[in-house]
Write a structure and sequence with these properties.
single chain, about 300 residues, alpha/beta, Single alpha-helices involved in coiled-coils or other helix-helix interfaces, Rossmann fold, 3 domains, 7-stranded parallel β-sheet
């Protein structure tokens, strides 16, 4: 299938073609990458206007159940795409979660598209092609795109670059732990939501809110939410809309450019035949003796640059 045929199918609302297009852009084959770049070029010429929302947080915080609640509210008037980034198996490089069960309310809705994708070992809470997946979903006509990030720590900060609003979910009574593990991500979060708020008393919940408010001198939006009760989802959506209107996409695109440059340099480095031969020659030596790894790396880079 040619790039123009992919575009035609996407614009015609063929969900199977959208899925195949995302698989295409995730491929590491050189032939697929060229076709994928042509498809993205075509999509960039189309009118695309979507709100991009990232939902992050540690494992067990309830990202999927929160997205299920938010999606249920939004689907009344919107078309919603959900890109769920799963941690990858280091051996298979495949997605090891890929589970829609926690989004059962919305997974079969006509106006929702849920796509689990492996993070391919990339830090930053997203995978190498998440931005391109967003472009494809925008071209398809999804006006709201939600990214469920991996949720592994400060590396999630990079996901901030692709979003109009970055939401960090925390668990009740986890303030000190969150501060220790995710100090950087707390700074980047547009909204901090204390999730599963139904599990503690109101007075304790207020203390938790005060904790985060004091940490940021009341300059951060702090909300509480229970996916079981789902009573204030409309208020949360209003806050998301306000933040999205003020999103500085130009600066964020520069961040994405730097990431793309690093990715291209790394790909070209490991494709280089001289580098492949040098690494093969070094493999046994590294196993048999102590080596200055940084010095060896510098040598390999110099070989590549010649």
């Amino acid at each position: 299938m040619k790039a123009k045929e992919y575009l035609e199918g996407i614009k015609n609302g063929e969900i199977s073609i959208l899925s195949k297009a995302i698989t295409l852009i995730e491929s590491s084959r050189e032939k697929d990458r060229k076709k994928a770049n042509s498809l993205i070029d075509l999509c960039l010429k189309e009118n695309r206007q979507s709100k991009i929302i990232c939902v992050s947080g540690p494992p067990g915080v309830g990202k999927s159940t929160f997205i299920n609640c938010l999606g249920s509210y939004l689907l009344k008037k919107n078309k919603v795409a959900i890109l769920a980034i799963d941690p990858s198996s280091k051996k298979s490089k495949g997605s090891i979660l890929a589970d829609k069960t926690r989004m059962s309310e919305i997974s079969n809705h006509d106006n929702v598209f849920i796509r689990p994708s492996p993070n391919q070992g990339k830090l930053g809470g997203i995978n190498k092609n998440t931005n391109e997946s967003i472009i494809l979903c925008e071209t398809f006509g999804f006006n709201i795109i939600i990214i469920e990030t991996v949720g592994v720590g400060q590396s999630e900060i990079n996901a901030h670059s692709i979003s109009d609003c970055f939401i960090l979910l925390t668990l009740p009574k986890s303030g000190d732990k969150i501060q220790a593990i995710k100090k950087g991500i707390l700074e980047f979060a547009d909204i901090i939501i204390i999730h599963k708020s139904d599990t503690i008393k109101k007075i304790e919940l207020q203390k938790e809110k005060n904790y985060f408010s004091d940490m940021f001198n009341k300059n951060k939006i702090i909300k509480t939410f229970s996916s079981i009760e789902s009573v204030n989802i409309e208020q949360i959506w209003k806050e998301i809309q306000k933040i999205s209107l003020n999103s500085n996409k130009k600066n964020k695109q520069i961040d994405l450019l730097h990431d793309a440059i690093k990715e291209e340099l790394e790909r070209e480095f490991y494709k280089n035949e001289k580098i492949k031969n040098e690494i093969n020659n070094l493999t046994n030596k590294i196993k048999m003796s102590n080596m200055n790894i940084k010095k060896v790396a510098k040598k390999l880079v110099n070989i590549f640059l010649k």
